[in-house]
Structures are given as structure tokens and as C-alpha cells.
Amino acid sequence: MHGSTPTPPPLPERTDSLNNRCEEGELRRAPWFQAGIPREITLEVLSQEPEGAFMVRESTSKPGCYALSLRVPREFQPSGIAHYLIMRTNKGYKIKGFTKEFTTLTALITHHSVMPELLPCPLSLSRYNPSFVKTDSNKDFADIDSDPDYNTLADFRKMMADLNV
């Protein structure tokens, strides 16, 4: 076949350092990623949140790993919060005790927001959607100052920003 187009050469695999640089920027923008947040603050913040709310931080007990803290049904865990270890693997990341591996932390989180797998509930990304605005009335905008949860989260984010974490 003379007129067929040649198959392009395979794309070079992304090097680890490039992949890490791309992902680092992505993680810095992800509200669920709070690298240096202490476990106690994670517990405090998540205890006010609905089931499925979660945070990922660097593990203090296992250097090089991440901790996934997830607000779960109390019948699953009496405290309402369960912790999972996210380990680095040759392919990327996986939750300890789970079989699926993901090339990036973001891919792992996105997958578990759709398919909880062994988690007691899916990870909820919805509460992190800053573009969601109720349009039924302007009253909602006036009330934002009197919403204690909103203020707590806003104060917390400002505190974390001030700490430059």
C-alpha cells in the first residue's frame, strides 16, 4: 500500500521528574491536598464535613507516603473519620491494602470519587467546586457571612495560606 500514512513513532515516556513537576503544580492547586497539615487539624475540619469529605496530607509516621483522611459513616468507624495510607509504588500510587495502582495522586483520588472500591463511601470532590453558585436569589450571597461552616473553612484556608503550607 503506497499511499498509506506511516505510523508515527511511539511517544517517549514522560520522565519521573517531569511527571512529578507537573503533578506538584496540580496538587498545589487541589484544595483536598494539604501537605503539612497536622492530623489533629484534619480531624477537626473533617468532623464538621459531610460523609465523603476528605483530605490528603503527608504521612507523619511513614515518610514518603501520604495519609488519606475520609469522613465516613459512624457505623463504619465510630469516630466518623477513617485513615488510609497512600504508598508510592513503581507505577505511581496505591492505597495500602488495595490492588489498583495509579500513575498520579490526582488519578487515584479521581478514581475513588467515582468508584469507592474498598472505601466505605466515594470521595466527594463536589464540596471543592468554587464555581458552584446558587442562583435562586441574592439572599444567598448576603447570608454567606453568617454561615459558620463557611467561615470556619475560610479561616482555616487563610490560616494555612498564612503558614505558607
From TrEMBL:
It holds the Pfam family SH2. InterPro entries: SH2, SH2_dom_sf. It comes from the Eukaryota. The keyword Transcription regulation does not apply. This is Src-like-adapter 2. CDD domains: SH2. The keyword Ribosomal protein does not apply. PROSITE patterns: SH2 (PS50001). Residues 32-131 form the SH2 domain. The gene is LOC105365628. Keywords: SH2 domain.
